Amino acid sequence: EPEVTQTPSHQVTQMGQEVILRCVPISNHLYFYWYRQILGQKVEFLVSFYNNEISEKSEIFDDQFSVERPDGSNFTLKIRSTKLEDSAMYFCASSNQGSRSNQPQHFGDGTRLSIL
Amino acid sequence: AQSVTQPDIHITVSEGASLELRCNYSYGATPYLFWYVQSPGQGLQLLLKYFSGDTLVQGIKGFEAEFKRSQSSFNLRKPSVHWSDAAEYFCAVGGDTDKLIFGTGTRLQVFP
Lengths: 116, 112
Prior knowledge:
The structure holds two protein chains of two kinds.
Chain A: E1 5-7, E2 10-13, E3 19-24, E4 31-37, E5 43-50, E6 53-57, E7 65-68, E8 75-79, E9 88-95, E10 106-107, E11 111-115
Chain B: E1 3-5, E2 10-14, E3 19-21, E4 24-26, E5 32-38, E6 45-50, E7 56-58, E8 64-68, E9 73-78, E10 87-94, E11 101-102, E12 106-111
Parallel strand pairs in B: 2-12
Antiparallel strand pairs in B: 1-4, 3-9, 5-6, 5-10, 7-8, 8-9, 10-11, 10-12
């Protein structure tokens, strides 16, 4: 069964550095998402992406964050000037239609980001 | 406000016992409801979903859930739990936006 893959599985970065988290969505999916889960807290929506532009974003997704689909297969989340509070598990998800339709989002295994 | 409540943070059951995990939601539009499972070190795997129609939905691994609009609930059930079911279970709601709103999760522990 096709799946969403995320790399790396664990990223350790110094505070203030930039980090890029990478995702390969399921190949025929058109909608892409990033969520994060701070340790012990809920999974929170960050951003959705369709047709090469942001479709929706949460208040968490400020100017520090950006997303990109640099080629036909990858979907990336960039965090500029990381802060301690950015430490979390970051999940990528994809769906073949938008979430307003009856198609579920499929999640990757996540990237654990640790900011020192 | 849109939200999902999972009142049980941690549940312990014996292997072979029945299981019910509770989920209540608050959502302004017609809800789409989901249960995901997260095993240690793994991502979120979709167990089942409800969009419309039959309010009792079947999922993978022998799980089912029942949508009760009058109670704003979508409880997850399994008649006989296996040790491999030990994991964290998340209820989520979506529908009129791109985002899914997740509950805080219920950690299931299974004793032999």
